[in-house]
């Protein structure tokens, strides 16, 4: 893969600043849109890194790049869900079974319940000492409560579900640990699906069972896999965006003050947090045919890592891309991916973030960090970036 103009680089690279992707990404973008790399986490397996915005969208929307991790050359090991491994048209058929549950109007109807759950958590925080860790007190329970409500899953099981999800996604988990965690989640969801077959309720899994399992549109096993994916994707990214997003705003007090003064800025602010932080840093693909991208020929069987966090800092797409700016006019970004595998819950995640961040800023106008920034434990060894803790204080 190495060329004279573009020598092989080692991937992944370490962050020098917890709020920015690795500094080397800027140099890679300047060098080429597609860069050869050796994947250090996979025995220096060769793969291509896609560094720029337009080329990233091109790869993610091109069906000649497969999401099937079982194919030779796929750059990472992944076993979280069969749906993630599928490509169109099979992927499209299964996605359409639940897609209507996450469209804009349907999601907008959830605002009252999300607001109520947020207010309850904020009430509990306010009634306690004037110091709290917002990760366990707010960031973790709110998305879990919401997705459990939508799926018809008991929130009483949230600790088990969160722990097994963390094991499945942890970058340091062994293949055996990942398989075991995924299997545990699968068995749990299989039990939920089979219970809904006998006694359906008013929830996504019940409608999936009624509309598709009972009509032989899909098997109970497929329904359980879909439910598992929705559970994992429906809370883990939002958990980390809440914590890291609030921390980012605390580091920009002037923009935080603007946001408090004008809640109409909450939508643009959330969009900028998603772009700036890009907590899912990359997506993996493998070429099924020879494809030219950005002037580079990617051969069939070559693995590809689409660097979302690099693409969202592309100087060709964003003015002063490393700056955090809630007034940014460029609205598009790749925080939720692109193409057939665009995150199903993007609209739900945006709504949750808007409600939670607005609620925190309104309820705690003097909110500030309780420790030095250097004491904040960031999630460097986890595939979804964020913070493990967010200790804050406020004036009583």
Secondary structure layout plus pairing:
Blueprint: E1 9-11, H1 24-31, E2 34-39, E3 45-50, H2 53-61, E4 65-66, H3 82-85, H4 90-99, H5 104-108, H6 111-127, E5 131-133, H7 134-139, H8 141-151, H9 158-169, H10 175-198, H11 204-213, H12 220-233, H13 236-250, H14 253-261, H15 266-277, E6 282-287, E7 291-293, E8 296-298, E9 303-307, H16 308-311, H17 346-363, E10 368-369, E11 391-393
Parallel strand pairs: 1-2, 3-9
Antiparallel strand pairs: 2-3, 4-6, 5-11, 6-9, 7-8, 10-11
Helix pairs in contact: 6-8, 6-17, 9-10, 10-11, 10-12, 11-12, 13-15, 13-17, 15-17
Structural class estimated from helices and strands:
alpha+beta
Chain oligomer state: single chain
Rounded mean pLDDT score:
91
Low-confidence stretches: none
Radius of gyration (CA) equals 21 Å
Shape: globular
Write down how many β-strands occur, each being a DSSP E stretch of 2 or more residues: 11
Strand content: 5-15%
H-E order: EHEEHEHHHHEHHHHHHHHHEEEEHHEE
Fraction in helix = 40-55%
Cross-sheet strand order for the largest sheet: 1-2-3-9-6-4
Number of helices: 17
Report the sheet with the most strands, covering strand number, pairing sense and barrel closure.
Answer: 6 strands, mixed
Distance, first to last CA: 60 Å
